[in-house]
Amino acid sequence: MSDDLGDFHAIIPAGGIGSRLWPLSRADAPKFLHDLTGAGTSLLRATWDRLAPIAGDQRIMVVTGRAHRAAVESQLPGLADRNVVLESEPKDSTAAVGLAAAILHRREPDVVIGSFAADHVIGDTRGFQRSVREAVIAARAGYITTIGITPTEPAIGFGYMRAGERIVVDGAANVHEVREFVEKPDLATAQRYVEDGSYLWNAGMFIARADKLLEEIGRSEPELLAGLEQLADAWDTPARGAVVDQVWPSLKKIAIDYTVAEPAAAAGRMAVVPGDFDWDDVGDFASLAKLQSGGRPHNLAVLGDNARILADSSSGIVVSHSNRLISLIGVEDIVVVDTPDALLVTTSQNAQRVKGVVDALKISGRDDVL
């Protein structure tokens, strides 16, 4: 680990089921536990491998659900037991990141924390690490800092942020103010953002001094902060279990974008380091198809160790986790996901609608396939 990041502690929130990747991603096997790149390693493990050289194995904390503890620890043998934070139920990113920050702040008052999702794909590890280093320097200066991704296309599946003037911070030449965060746009708006040149994709990476992050949560959600502080006070004591059972269910479920990023940007306390490295959140099967095919639109991507596929004049993606032979003839941009108990057939254009299937299954009580 580099000496200049000795105060840095990485946090990996590993939650959510990735409902737009159903039936591949399930409640008991969410997308971060899968190898979606064909690299032979899960997205979670790849995230760990990016962070370990700049944080060190003993300075990475994983926040995940109780049901996933065994799988997470199996994939991450270097994860210290004291750095496993288990959620009894999902409460979104403010609770996950805020609790980790509060625990680490008690252990190390001057710690700089960085939160990085467990299920993203990043091609340029060195570029990512350079951006993290600059973000840590900006965080030490008191900014809530994020890493924004330079858009490569007018994507409508991502949130955006507008970068402003450069902020002078010794040792970091690529830090800018964040003027505003904006929600996922329509195609015309996204095209305007890309042409403007000052908009970046919001990749959900947040780096800050733990005390500053907690202050920001307290400004917008004081009751939520009080609950997180109560949990952190008990975390490294024998009272942890009882306090978690009492406090965790009462925590407000809200994303960190709303409690920290947006209000900090409005108040001039938010900074961004533009990142030029390849990044994808693999949010649906359309993005997975693009990732697997290398961006070549007329290719058929196949995922699955023992996939049996016959294809003629077809494109899209097939994910096969069964022994069935799958034959495709003359279909374009097809999405086929075949598992032992569920089959999905759609198109890349409709990939975002898969979440609606999951919602319908929940309403109908079909938890056996979720």
What does this 3D model show about the protein?
By secondary structure, the chain is an alpha/beta fold. It has two domains: 278 residues, Spore Coat Polysaccharide Biosynthesis Protein SpsA, Chain A (Alpha-Beta Complex); 85 residues, no CATH class. 34% of the residues lie in helices and 25% in strands. The protein has eleven helices and 17 strands. It has a five-stranded mixed β-barrel, surrounded by four helices. Strand 1, helix 1 and strand 2 form a beta-alpha-beta unit. Helix 3 packs across helix 7. It is globular and about 60 Å long.
Map the helices and strands.
Blueprint: E1 8-14, H1 43-55, E2 60-65, H2 69-75, E3 84-87, H3 92-107, E4 112-115, E5 121-122, H4 125-140, E6 144-149, E7 160-166, E8 176-182, H5 187-196, E9 199-209, H6 210-220, H7 222-235, H8 240-247, H9 256-266, E10 270-275, E11 279-280, H10 285-293, E12 300-303, E13 308-312, E14 316-320, E15 325-329, E16 334-339, E17 342-347, H11 354-363
Parallel strand pairs: 1-2, 1-4, 2-3, 6-10, 12-14, 13-15, 14-16
Antiparallel strand pairs: 4-9, 5-11, 6-9, 7-8, 7-9, 8-10, 16-17
Helix pairs in contact: 3-6, 3-7, 3-9, 6-7, 6-9, 7-8
Mean pLDDT: 93
Classified by CATH, the class of the largest domain is Alpha Beta
Helices, by number, come to 11
CATH topology of the largest domain: Spore Coat Polysaccharide Biosynthesis Protein SpsA, Chain A
Uncertain stretches: none
The CATH superfamily of the largest domain is: Spore Coat Polysaccharide Biosynthesis Protein SpsA, Chain A
> In CATH terms, what is the architecture of the largest domain?
Alpha-Beta Complex
**Shape descriptor:** globular
Radius of gyration, whole Å: 21 Å
Q: Determine the strand fraction and express it as a percent band.
A: 25-35%
Number of domains: 2
Q: Ends: how far apart?
A: 40 Å
Per DSSP E runs of 2 or more residues, the count of β-strands stands at: 17
Largest sheet: 5 strands, mixed, barrel
What is the topology, as strand order, of the major beta sheet? 6-9-7-8-10
Helix content class: 25-40%
